[in-house]
Design a protein that fits this description.
This protein has 7 helices and 2 strands. The chain has about 160 residues and is mainly α. The chain has one domain: Phycocyanins (Globin-like, Orthogonal Bundle). Strands 1-2 form a two-stranded antiparallel sheet. Helix 2 runs antiparallel to helix 4 and helix 5 packs parallel to helix 7. The longest helix has 26 residues. It starts with a helix and ends with a helix. Belongs to the phycobiliprotein family. This is Tll0854 protein. Keywords: Bile pigment, Chromophore. One of its GO terms (cellular component) is phycobilisome.
């Protein structure tokens, strides 16, 4: 959304924007209240979401956050919290490009560097399911593309 507004501002400099150029803005504004509600639900349920993800992951593999004798559960939770917050913000502003380019691709490099692909794959399969449980049926379609993008980049 923000990138689209910036692009429109530059392209329409000195002239009026066309109806076609304004369409994305109309669509965004028509759904803004639902996006805000979804964002607030995710924000307010953040700890519950993270707890449920932890629980489901540990049911599948009790040692999912261990490497040798080290338990990295706290670090992984911190990282999931960061991903969830950025995902909710990307949904709020309808800006998948910023999420992908500004965070997900960088974070995928970190996951690979620390050889955490298996934990990431499990995490980013479970996270969308849990997040969608918090949202209404009308709100899920706004968050679904964000979760799909996150899963496709971090969960492979």
């Amino acid at each position: 959304m923000l990138r689209q507004l910036e692009k429109l501002s530059l392209e329409a400099d000195g002239r009026y924007a066309s109806a076609t150029e304004l369409e994305f803005l109309r669509n965004y504004l028509a759904a803004a209240e639902q996006r805000i509600c979804a964002y607030e639900k995710i924000r307010d349920a953040e700890e519950k979401i993270l707890d449920q993800v932890d629980q489901q992951l540990r049911l599948k593999n009790p040692h999912i956050f261990r490497k040798g004798n080290q338990d990295y559960a706290a670090v992984c939770r911190r990282d999931r919290k960061h991903v969830l917050r950025l995902a909710a913000t990307a949904m709020l502003f309808a800006d998948l490009d910023a999420l992908r380019d500004g965070f997900l691709l960088w974070y995928r490099t970190i996951i690979k560097a620390f050889k955490d692909e298996k934990a990431a794959q499990a995490t980013y399969q479970v996270l969308p399911e849990v997040v969608h449980q918090v949202l209404s049926g009308e709100e899920v379609p706004f968050m679904q593309p964000v979760m799909a993008l996150t899963q496709s980049i971090l969960g492979k």
